Amino acid sequence: MSASLLIAATAALVGVALGVVGGWVTPPRHLSQRAIRVLTVLLAVAAVGFVMASAMKSDPSPAASHSSSPVPVGSSRAGRSATGHSSVAAPSPSAAQLPKALANDLLLTIDTGAGSPTLYSWHLDGTNRERLGGTGSTITPIVVPGTDNMISPLSPPNAKTFGIYEVSFGGDVVQQLTFPTSASFSDEDVAFAASSKAVFVARTKTSMIDSSTGTVSPYELFEFPLAHPSDVRPLTFARDVQQIAVDATGDVIAGQCAGPKGQPAQICTIDLRSGNRTHVPGAEGTTMSDAALSPDGKLIAYDAFKENPYGQSQVFVYDLSRHTTTEVSRLVGQNDQPVWAPGSNSCLAFHHYETARETIHIACESAGSWSDFDTTATGANPAWFSPPR
Question: What distance in Å separates the CA atoms of residue 255 and residue 376, rounded to the nearest whole number?
Answer without folding.
Answer: 28
